[in-house]
Amino acid sequence: MVGIGPGGPLDRTRRAEEAIAASDVVAGYGRYLELAADLTAGKELIATGMTREKERCRLALARAKEGKAVALVSSGDPGVYGMAGLVLEIAAAEGISVPIEIVPGVTAASALAARLGAPLMCDFAAISLSDLLVPWETIRSRLEAVAAADLVVALYNPRSQRRTHQLAEAAAIFRRHRPGATPVGIGTAVGTSEETILLSDLDRFLELPITMRSIIIVGNRSSMRIAEWFVTPRGYAL
């Protein structure tokens, strides 16, 4: 499994590029293969669509069983909402014994944090608002817990065309625990030519364009804006 970072080649690691270069087969969601197209010339490509993750992993494992070097690519890091866990589960459940290496990548949360300033300088959590695999009741309870604990939070999969109420409910949960002026950063298509970075606050961020390609960082009660930057102080005495 290879993490290709949030999108652009500048955010890929050398280890990820070397792993893809050494592979015979590159498998992944179609858009991720497009992002790595400069590395895959002459290689066999296995592309599957959204929600076909199990099929993608089984195809990659099947080619590995045949002796091929396979790079199964994920955006960001394969161990953070990626394919690493699913590959390990399927291999164990189906008795597939092949060498597996997990190549980490730059996560969307850390890529956005770098664009915004330093919002993740202290304790933080990551929560996906997609209830495709996790019940919304479970996600809501996690939001309540991190909001009450005053953790900075990175929200993945915040909104889609069919799934809109979850983000509004998450915002309401955080507003119960934090001032309306709490900084909120939004990154969409981070690391690509379509990237947009917006800095708002808890009271107003829902008015901004947010899609499934967005990630949101919500500050804690000590987070602040310093000029154009979003900063969560680590606690150093100045």
What does this protein look like?
The structure is a single chain. This protein is α/β, with parallel strands linked by helices. 29% of the residues lie in helices and 22% in strands. The protein contains 7 helices and 12 strands. It has helices at residues 14-21, 30-35, 53-65, 84-93, 108-116, 136-148, 165-175, and strands at residues 2-3, 25-29, 44-48, 70-74, 117-118, 124-128, 152-156, 183-188, 196-201, 214-218, 224-226, 229-231. It has a 5-stranded mixed β-sheet with strand order 6-7-10-8-9, sandwiched between helices. Strands 1-4-2-3 form a 4-stranded parallel β-sheet, sandwiched between helices. Strands 5-12-11 form a 3-stranded mixed β-sheet.
* Helix content bin: 25-40%
Strand order of the largest sheet: 6-7-10-8-9
Kindly provide the name of the CATH class of the largest domain: Alpha Beta
- Helix-strand sequence: EHEHEHEHHEEHEHEEEEE
Tell me briefly what this model is.
The protein has 2 domains: 2-93, Cobalt-precorrin-4 Transmethylase, domain 1; 108-231, Methyltransferase, Cobalt-precorrin-4 Transmethylase, Domain 2 (2-Layer Sandwich), CATH 3.30.950.10. Helix content is 29%, strand content 22%. It has helices at residues 14-21, 30-35, 53-65, 84-93, 108-116, 136-148, 165-175; strands at residues 2-3, 25-29, 44-48, 70-74, 117-118, 124-128, 152-156, 183-188, 196-201, 214-218, 224-226, 229-231.
